[in-house]
Amino acid sequence: MTNVECELAGSHGVAFTDRTKGVKNGMKGESAASDEELTSDILSHYSSASETASVLEEGTGGEQVDEQTAQEETEDKLKQCIDNLMDRSAKTRLAALESLQQAFSSRVLYDFLTGQRLTVCDCLERSLKKGGGAEQAAAATVFTLLCIQLGGGDEAEEGFKSLRPILTSILNDNSANIAARQSCAMTLGMCCYVSTAEGGEDLVKILALLESVFTSSYPNREGTLPSPKPGMPGLHTAALQAWSLLVTLCPASKLTELLELHLPKLQACLQSSDVNYRIAVGETIALLVELGRDIDEEFEVEDSEGLCECLKSLATDGNKHRAKNDRRKQRSIFREVLHYIENEDFTEERIRFGMESVYIDGWMRKRIYDAFKEILESGVRHHLQYNQLLRDIFGLGPPLILDAATIKGNKISRAEKHLFNSAAFKARTKLRNKVRDKRADVISRRQLLLSRNTVIRLVSYALWLVVSCVLPQTRMDSDQITGVYGKVSGLPAPVSAHVSEEQLPEVRIYTVTAEWIQSDLVQSSRLRYSQQWTLIADSNNHQSIRTVLPPGPCAPVSGELLSELSPVHGLRAVVRETGSQQLLEIWDRHGLRKCLNLSALNIHGRVYDDSQFGCLSWSECERKLLYVAESSRSSSAETRSRESTSRKDRSVYREDWGEALTGKSVPVLCVVDLHHGAVDVLQGVPPDVSPGQALWAPGSQSVFFVGWCLEPFRLGLKFCSNRRSALFRLSLDGHCECISGDNLSVSCPRLSPDGSMLIYLQGRVFGPHNQCHSVQQLDLKSWKTSTLLDVVSRPQAGEFAGVYEALPSHCWSADGQKVVFSSAVRNWKDVFMLDRRTKKVTSLSDNLSDLSKVYGSWKLLTLQRDLMVVCCSSPNSPPTLRVGFLPSAGETVTWRTLQQPVMTFDYPWKVLDVTPPSEEDNRCYPGLDFGAVLVKPSRLICETRTPLVVFIHGGPHSQFPAEWNSTTAGLVELGFAVLMVNYRGSTGFGQDSILSLIGQIGSQDVQDVQRAVMAALQSDKTLDPKRLAVIGGSHGGFLSCHMIGQYPDFYRACAARNPVINAATLLGTSDIVDWRYTSAGFHFSYDNIPTAETLAAMLQKSPITHAALIKAPVLLMLGGKDRRVSPHQGLELYKVLKSRGSPVRLLWFPEDGHSLSRVDTQRHGENHQPQEHTTHQEPLSRQAPQYKAKRPTANTKPRYVRPAAPTHDGKSHTSPQWENQTWVIKRWKKKRNRHAPNYFQLYWREKEIPLEMFSSITVEEAPS
After folding, report:
1. Which residues lie below 8 Å from residue 4, measured CB to CB, with a gap of 6+?
2. Where do the record's region annotations for Disordered lie (predicted)?
């Protein structure tokens, strides 16, 4: 390097390096890095900020040099370099060209070069004509930079026309230097791109010229690729990349011609022996496909299957005849190409420069950015910041003008740079060392390392099943699994809706407001937000939607427990929780109208917002609100009379309503007078009932409510519609009367719009915890009750199957003659309309007999002003929001879609109808059948057959409709087929099917699941019968454990959430003790005392009796606060399997309940490392310390799950001191005698670690 060049590099900041090359800037094909190395490179991505900083430091930073003087010195040095271009010495000319190349790429010099343009062009022309190969290559590169500096205007076009013949001549000269020819190819492509109009004559000529170069690599007539001469693959690569850059300028007509001509032949070039050319071909194919799809949405590649197979082999290339670096180079690029060809999925990249960013969101944009980056190298960010040409190309607008204060405020100090780069270097070194370790290749085939903290049930299922069913045939990294989970679980779903109406002179306006819920993995929380749509209907025919306006922005809903709009004035009542306070807010069109601090008033306890008791109802005058809250102990008469009693009375046990309703013991009805701001607790509710689901009666002088019987003791209410309850009417003066039958179960009272009729659901007490309901109607004029819709015992094919779900809060038609609701029907969920006059039930969705229908599940959110708002989904289509008006007699609904899901999936699904053989028929209820839903991946993951996961629902009286399920979608995205089984006893098949399971658990349902699996395997030969796994929760976990016990050689893995393992030991610990008797076939009464016969029958039906036969690995996930199925059930199986050396793993969530749905469960279930189970292993959990111990199997790190149970000192060890700690058990040299037999226990007792933790630990010596 000459002195001039060194000075330029030092004074103009051109000597910095681009540390992110090959990762974020789209140059993956030039980085010989594995996936892990690419990840480690990203750690240093921000170090590129030094590039911008080094440029900005001139004039704003350290050197106290006059800006004009520095500019003059720079120009003098540049002029010296230009003069050196005419020197007789080839070495001097080459050095000058290299100096100009660095200067042009690192600075924007438009003003200077405008005056020197002709001189520079003449010098470059001389070098191209008379210089050697290296000088020609450098001159061509400098000319490209000159065109970029001049901005592609008339000056650049004039210079290109003068030099183009020379560049063309060099490119066509087979005797010319290869490097010079490559540089000329790149120059012709870039200069044509920046200086030629789209569709111009020059563009066509340059395209043809470049084609003549790289087409020599196309296969010959025999279909074989020619053997390239030395250096030719590099020339072909440069020509192909320049050509693909110009293709982005071609009009549609020319592009169609190029696609037909080159795309088939480029596919053959994927087998080239040169890795860089293979990568260039792959990126060009992706670019052409993207451009083709832009022209025609239905564009398809000929022989797409062959192309995908070829790309797949390159993305997973393990051929030993290729160099290891070459294999690593191409894998990441061809994975991206394959994902785009198959799924139109492109991984967006963000390029940061200064205070701005540019997004690379497609192959065309990537090709353009890569071309500029190749020529500008590390100066590309500076040009993006200040070069108007690049800013125009990438749509960045005029350059930002920043003052010194702004620059200084955003500048990173040298100390911060040093600290960040040091940390990034350490992290990168650690990861690379791990990759370079020869053992990593072996271990990585047996374990999946989890690199993120967001691990919940889906990831637990997937990791476990991947290890047990797929490995070692398929390798799946943790980033892929967590990425899949993030994609499928982050999709929003509507949970409620409201409709308002406004009549204008010519049109009628409907406003639909929907509330959505969405999981946010970054914040580890569930977000709620609302969104509005405006529907314009004809004034004459208001049920004909003329226009749907675009939706408004999403508005986050923070802290809202309950909300309700008043029917007349549109006031919005909100019960909001802020910290420990509960507020009642009233909003109108002008803002917040009134706010009451309910907690500060201390009239009652916390407001109920659950679906069992919770309500918020406006009175007709819209001056009062009705809701349910916990009674206040301090304000109750009983408590005031006992204030003088001893403190020990506070320890008296207070019953509540069980699972998910902990602390909800004595609900009361509360009325707020908005005019006076007063809150009153209604008196007169019978003391032996708990009120809920309240609403105002006509006239607003009394209220209706459901009262649940609480004597002699409460039973769990969540998911149990068979609790003894009645419908009551309570006047404001305290008079209460029961208006429904005795010894029944009632719920969901709904008042007609005209106030003349009240409907509600009615069912049996005890028996199945969920069952088919009848719909009762109460005439409020005559006070007579009649059955509007009876229980369906056994529906015929294609007919209505009964009511199994709660009624929506708004379900009446405007005329009060129709009721609309959602319910299960076999393997589907549908929306039905019940006509009160004819008692006829009509389906309002697609025809159930049409198996090609898009949606398998329809759920009614609301019906107001005859406008229905529904949520539709299917196993491959996330929730969609749709609207439609109630149809007239003999007509169908015209549905309009308001909100499509962000993404849909193309994997197929179908419904299976299964009829059990005669030997498995139920004697009391013969002739019953059942069903299942089979969902398959759209493509195989490097396998010939697809592994199958059998997914079993809990309940047992619930259903798997053909709807969106994130767990199912995640597993399918990972390459598994999923079979969701609706065994006999599931809802949607009639009351007889539900009753048939009573007394038959552990046998009939197990046979049904196995029968469904066999039917799926017989109907679809692509499923792999040798790789089956089973998962489920609650009763689904009960059946999962039965399957691996009764069919030990059939299933390869099992994952169970809070499973029932031993029904006998569960009897005294469950909040639904009645179901424990009923499920085993025994009659329940409150005064039942277990007998030996009862316990023996329960034990015989339990999975624990088959535990000795279990061979498959088992994953158990238990909630420490589960009141429905005690976590000791799972621990019982865990201990049995552990004692027998069977592979078992347990995840313990001490603060979660039966459903494991807490957000912190999603955050805390982290960093467990599944491994292939060939020997005994300890379970894993974040909630307990890890222990390093000697084991028969190498490379294992067993951990222990510590439940919240008393230990030797009577303390519970689930305190915060246990969390986030890792303990390495070694003999540390202390003052005590470390060789004493009990030394270890004595030492760790001081750490409050329970002794039983050491029962199976082998101590290893630690260094002094």
Report:
1. 77, 80, 81, 84, 95, 96, 99
2. 53-75, 1157-1218
What is the Cβ-side half-sphere exposure of residue 695, based on CA atoms within 13 angstroms?
A: 18
Catalytic residue, from 1034, 1040, 1070, 1181: name it: 1034
Sheet with strand 616-618: strands edge to edge: 616-618, 624-630, 667-673, 678-681
Pairing of strands 1226-1227, 1260-1261: parallel
End-to-end C-alpha distance for the chain, whole angstroms: 55
Q: pLDDT higher for 383 or 934?
A: 934
Residue 762 vs residue 109, higher pLDDT: 762
State which amino acid sits at residue 259: L
Q: Average pLDDT of 482-493?
A: 87
Q: What angle do CA 695, 771, 778 make, to 5 degrees?
A: 35
Cα–Cα dist 909/851, whole Å:
10
> Is residue 350 classed as helix, strand or coil in its secondary structure?
strand
Percent with pLDDT over 70 in the chain: 77
**pLDDT tens readout for residues 234-272:** 999 999 999 999 989 888 888 888 888 888 888 889 888
What are 737-746's pLDDT values in tens digits?
Answer: 999 999 999 9
Tokens of 384: 């993006």
Residue bearing tokens 């013969």: 926
Choose among 51, 56, 55: nearest CA to 25: 51
DSSP, res 18: -
How far apart CA 327 and CA 314 sit, in angstroms, is: 8
User: What sign does the dihedral 82-88-92-97 (CA atoms) show?
Assistant: positive
Q: In this structure, is the dihedral angle defined by the CA atoms of residues 780, 784, 788 and 789, taken in order, positive or negative?
A: positive
- Residue entry with tokens 């003008």: 401
Most confident of 537-541, 640-644, 1217-1221, 1230-1234: 537-541
Structure letter (DSSP) for residue 911: E
pLDDT at 475: 53
Q: Tell me which residue of 817, 812, 823, 882 sits closest to 848, measured CA to CA.
A: 823
pLDDT given for residue 1186 in this prediction: 31
Could you say which of 1154, 1168, 1176, 1213 is catalytic?
1154
Nearest CA-CA partner of 15 in 377, 354, 355, 374: 377
356 pLDDT band (50/70/90 cuts)? confident
Is position 1154 annotated as part of the catalytic site?
yes
- Enumerate the β-bridge partners of residue 821: 832
> Helix and strand tally (H, E) in the chain?
35, 40
Q: How many CA atoms lie within 13 A of 313 on its CB side?
A: 10
Residues in Cβ contact with 314 at an 8 Å cutoff, skipping those fewer than 6 apart: 270, 278, 282, 330, 331, 334
Helix (H) or strand (E) holding 994: helix 991-996
Confidence band for 1234, pLDDT divided at 50, 70 and 90: very low
Phi, psi dihedral angles at 134 (to 5 degrees):
-65, -40
- 1125-1176 confidence digits (pLDDT tens): 999 999 999 999 999 999 999 999 998 999 988 755 654 433 333 333 333 3
Tell me the two tokens of residue 1183.
């909630």
C-alpha 161/C-alpha 158 separation (Å) is 5
From the candidates 18, 609, 1071, 1122, give the one annotated as an active-site residue. 1122
Whether 303 is catalytic? no
| H/E segment holding residue 1029 | strand 1023-1033
810 included as an active-site residue:
no
